[in-house]
Write a structure and sequence with these properties.
Its main location: mitochondrion. This protein is mainly α and about 270 residues long. The protein has a single domain, classed as Mitochondrial carrier domain (Mitochondrial carrier fold, Alpha/alpha barrel), CATH 1.50.40. It contains ten helices and no strands.
Length: about 270
């Protein structure tokens, strides 16, 4: 990967992350409160839907930049030769690149996401108060294990599907896609990935919001999913799926569309 491409991916990824996180923050707050163990209205309802936005603003640029730099570098390395350079192996390349990108991005995303979700579910507390409480009492919640487990399945679905849709559309119209077309592909891929991985997102939200010492706080994903199934059934497992799909679909449009536009402009 050339230096120019590296810088383009870094800047484009960061800009895309800032755009989508700040634009769609209220929808993300509603989704978090719908999945909260204490229930939507007790978690704040429609009050203070911008609670937690400082942590999202601080983490979004470096998080998205780290993901896309890793994603593009991995694609470039795997595509230069060997078995994965063949066209039919492209989905595998995109899966590996997306997985590695998520793992690197976890280093930044985990602490900001814990603080953001806790502030969203406790609108009476400030971001700074939540930060201090988390650092003082529950540093174990910042383990990379949680976020990598939850985010990798999503990326395994979204990015290969996004790349496939772009390739298919480009082939049918006979030229490279415009940025808005790449954005449409991103919206569709995001919606599909969001629905499929909603149960994991419910488990993640429960674990992130759980009090220290509780069964949920231990981070045993199958146990958390079973508890949700036992208490709320299939509806509980897919709680917040509509706002999640809406959020990620619109977010995929903005995120991947902005990324393509900025990256092409810089290149």
């Amino acid at each position: 990967m050339e230096k120019r491409e590296f810088v383009a991916s870094l800047v484009a990824g960061g800009c895309a992350g800032m755009c989508v996180d700040l634009t769609l923050f209220p929808l993300d707050t509603i989704k978090t409160r719908l999945q909260s163990q204490q229930g939507f209205y007790k978690a704040g309802g429609f009050r203070g839907i911008y609670a937690g936005v400082p942590s999202a603003a601080v983490g979004s640029f470096p998080n998205a930049a780290a993901f896309f730099v890793t994603y593009e570098c991995t694609k470039s390395l795997l595509g230069t030769g060997g078995a994965l350079a063949a066209p039919h192996a492209a989905p595998v390349t995109h899966m590996l690149a997306a997985s590695l990108g998520e793992i690197v991005a976890c280093l930044i995303r985990v602490p900001t996401e814990v603080i953001k979700q806790r502030t969203q579910a406790s609108p009476s507390s400030t971001t700074y108060q939540i930060l201090l409480a988390t650092l003082r009492e529950e540093v174990h919640k910042l383990q990379l294990y949680f976020f990598c487990v939850f985010q990798i399945p999503f990326s395994l679905v979204q990015f290969p599907l996004w790349e496939y849709l772009k390739t298919l559309w480009s082939w049918r119209q006979g030229h490279t896609l415009y940025s808005w077309q790449a954005a449409v592909c991103g919206a569709f891929a995001g919606a599909v990935a969001a629905f499929v991985t909603t149960p994991l997102d419910v488990a993640k939200t429960r674990i992130m919001l759980a009090k220290a010492g509780s069964t949920t706080a231990s981070g045993n994903i199958p146990v958390v999913l079973y508890d949700v199934w036992k208490s709320r059934g299939l509806t509980g497992l897919f709680a917040g799926s509509i706002p999640r799909m809406t959020f990620i679909s619109v977010g995929g449009f903005i995120f991947l569309g902005t990324y393509e536009k900025v990256r092409r402009t810089l290149l």
